[in-house]
Amino acid sequence: MKKTLMALEQIGKRYNQPDQANGSILEDINLQIREGELVSVLGPSGSGKSTLLRIMAGLVAPSQGSVLYDGKRIAGTNPGVGMVFQSFALFPWLTVLENVKLGLENRPMREEEKLRKALSVIDMIGLDGFEGAYPKELSGGMRQRVGIGRALVMEPDVLLMDEPFSALDVLTAENLKRDLLELWTERKIPTKSIILVTHSIEEAVYLSDRAIVLSRDPARVISDIPIRLPHWRDKQDPLFTSLVDRLYAILTKREAKTPEAAEEQKKKIEKVPAVPAGALTGFIELIDDLGHQVDLYKLADQLSLDLEDFLPIVETAQTLGFAAIQHGDIALTDIGRRFADASVLDRKEIFRAQVQQHVPMMERIIWILHSKSNNKMERAFFEEIFEKHFGAEEASRQLDILIDWGRYAELFTYNEQTRVLFLES
User: Fold this and answer.
1) Averaged in consecutive runs of 10 residues, what is the pLDDT profile of the chain (425 residues)?
2) CA 208 – CA 170 distance, rounded (Å)
């Protein structure tokens, strides 16, 4: 049995701040990170993946539960981890060497030793010759290498990486992934485990030994999948694609609800995916053109969409009853096929019926507009209601989508200048 480097026990995180909803982000997270593992963390947008990583690092305190490093509970910064951020997080006034050496700022060692370690890491990450360059002189990929170097120079047991490739172009990201994987598989770095937050299922299967899948609102661990394919992995290998399909199926699976739970859900204000009606229409048309059913992995690849952009549109199609997921495929339902084949006016009628049936928030908006003698209501009124559940930023985003859907379905209209929703007579 491999040694457990870090453990999370019943981790929960709840925000109770004026600008955020009063609710759980993470709930009952239990994980063990073992020596020799590269672990990916997957989940829908807003599922708390980055928050979980910051709790592991000790940068954010959990509301409940404990983080253990080397068997001991930590309070404050975790001494055994290094962290790589999506945004590079370099100091523009420092050179490559100075940025990397910054990782050793608080280490009790002589300056000559810090310099030796920093130069060694710079050579290892492929930036030899750029020691005196400033971040503005570097490409995005080179800047991220500096961020990785700054984390590695600390010789952490666990390297935490928060979507480190997402801000890079495709070719640069692929090159950096291969270089990181080479350092890892050939044990050229002292790190004993890597935890990677990613929004790419393919990336997770390509790099990882395990894939942790989180749900949303609040985030819980819904699956822990071992990936036992040898490196280097062929993305065309049927075993590779079957694992990708399996993860897509897990992430798009909808939890079956009892009639009582379904009725209770109607009373709640729940998020809707941020997908405009026009995008959903095009998505349904595409599935129809592909024979009414298509593999999720192939569809995401064809659309060049990562998980953060792809899952919301799949979820919307499911929520409104236009599509269903089975064994990693998405297939149009009967109503979805009717929608795809309908005229413009008939589509609006079908969409109207599905939104009213499946989106309780839309029904509340319509009820409120009908209850007013002039059939009008200011946007601010609805935002105030939603803010109690989602926080200010998400409340505005939710209302934008509901207005888009309501206008498309001709349930109501909206005046952007006066910021008023109203029913047309």
Assistant:
1) 91 71 82 96 88 94 93 90 88 94 87 92 91 93 93 94 88 90 92 94 95 91 95 92 92 62 55 92 95 92 85 94 92 97 95 95 93 93 87 89 95 94 86
2) 19
Q: How far apart are CA 248 and CA 306, in angstroms?
A: 11
Closest residue by Cα to residue 90 from 155, 56, 50, 140: 140
Q: What is the CATH number of the domain that holds 116?
A: 3.40.50.300
CATH number at residue 366: 1.10.10
Amino acid residing at 361? M
Collect all residues with Cβ–Cβ distance below 8 Å to 345 and sequence separation of at least 6: none
> Could you tell me the residue range of the domain that residue 330 belongs to?
277-422
3-state secondary structure the chain: CCCEEEEEEEEEEEECCCCCCCEEEEEEEEEEEECCCEEEEECCCCCCHHHHHHHHHCCCCCCEEEEEECCEECCCCCCCEEEECCCCCCCCCCCHHHHHHHHHCCCCCCHHHHHHHHHHHHHHCCCCCCCCCCHHHCCHHHHHHHHHHHHHCCCCCEEEEECCCCCCCHHHHHHHHHHHHHHHHCCCCCCCEEEEECCCHHHHHHHCCEEEEECCCCECEEEEEECCCCCCCCCCCHHHHHHHHHHHHHHHCCCCCCHHHHHHHHHCCCCCCCCCHHHHHHHHHHHHHCCCEEEHHHHHHHHCCCHHHHHHHHHHHHHCCCEEEECCEEEECHHHHHHHHCCHHHHHHHHHHHHHHHCHHHHHHHHHHHHCCCCEEEHHHHHHHHHHHHCHHHHHHHHHHHHHHHHHCCCCEEECCCCEEECCC
Neighbour order of strands in the sheet with 376-378: 376-378, 420-422, 413-415
User: Tokens in use for 80?
Assistant: 């055994």
Same domain for 291 and 160, yes or no, is no
Which residue, 68, 89, 233, 73, is CA-closest to 147?
89
Global confidence as pTM:
0.82
Q: Does one domain contain both 243 and 281?
A: no
| 144 and 28 belong to one structural domain | yes
Identify the bridge partners of residue 226 per DSSP, sorted by sequence position: 210
138, two tokens: 């570097």
